């Protein structure tokens, strides 16, 4: 029997957010759950979302997409808490 997946499909549509990264205006597209996780991380660290994004941007290899880096960072933070 095929297992049913319960997904709120409205949360699959990426949102474009504008942020200043290292003094430059840029935008990233993220699905709402990833954005919520990143905002929660920023809140718990007492930092702004822009600071978190800038920090991740400064560490990522140039060939790696910023939005992808943010998704993986968010996912890793969730997985680390579960282990």
UniProtKB/TrEMBL annotation:
Species of provenance: Bartonella kosoyi
Protein name as catalogued: Ribbon-helix-helix domain-containing protein
Domain of life: Bacteria
Residues annotated as domain Ribbon-helix-helix: 15-77
Entry-linked InterPro entries: RHH_dom, RHH_sf
